[in-house]
Amino acid sequence: MELPGIDDPDRVKSLMENTAQLELRLVKKDQANGFSSVESAVTASGGKIAEGYEILPYREDRGDQIQLEYLIVNKTSVVTGKDLKTARQAKDSNGQPTVEFFLTSDGAKLFALATEQHIGEKLAIVLDDVVTSAPVIRDRIESDGVISGGFTAQQAEDLALMLRSGALPASLKVTHEQSVGASLGNDSIRSGIYASLFGFGLVVIGMIIYYKQSGLNAILCLLANLLILMGFMGRVGATLTLPGIAGIILTIGMAVDANILIFERIREELRLGKTIRAAVDLGFSKVFWTILDSNLTTLIAALFLFQFGTGPIKGFAITLTVGLLANMFTAIYVSHRLFEWMLGNRRIETLSI
Fold first, then answer.
1. Does the structure show a pLDDT above 70 at 297?
2. Rounded to an integer, what distance in angstroms lies between the CA atom of residue 245 and that of residue 242?
């Protein structure tokens, strides 16, 4: 298991080693708040807990102190850890930390039915028979949902980690632990960036030598592609990792491949005696489906990697997916507009390609 960005491994081990079973249970409908003791919970219920319910401790983290309360919750779980695919820290529209969770297809059906019937009620997140959070159901939830509750970034990260570890079929036992220091990580990232720049430089030289002035068109499209990709990563706050760099390098290759298909088709149309404008238009129109097909098949593979891969693999899949979408836009639209701008309203007898 890899946990990038963790600066307190002892805290993480403590969270994961002490968590083995995750359950999502409904809190008793007429219970607005937690009780200070088991006795007060029983008293409020008329001296007897209703059949099908039980009292569980609720440890709520409130910054500098942990408040211990008790909740009356349903004994039957809505979903359990086996229905959870993953959970991660996120932010809402106001920038406040939240926790996103994702369910399996079977879990999504059960959860959708339960949440639709109990909107406005509380849902207890139970780990090892202890309630760690009890958010209110705001809407019908299917395959994914958001847990919010005034978390700090640390609390949201801890809850996401506990949810993921609670989805494990057994408790975690640490047999080996290794921390990769920042200097080693930076060296790897630096090497990956150098490799990307070296590859990019070779692509630039090769395109200009082989396609002459039209090669500049491909280089501008490639730069636009990288700009879109980097802009996306900056917008979502993504971290540049080695798998992500690998995705960028593959994106460079896919982008150049699309331009090569277009340029070769334009050359073929020119050899058939077409005018320059007609050759350019036909070159783009006739390879459109070829480019779409090649990118779409790779995109499907990336989606499978994201669906079934772990953290680093998902990072590679996301980078590759965004790069492919940007590639189709720059190769099909941007490159065509650049040719139109270059030709303008002038009568051009030859095309440097």
1. yes
2. 5
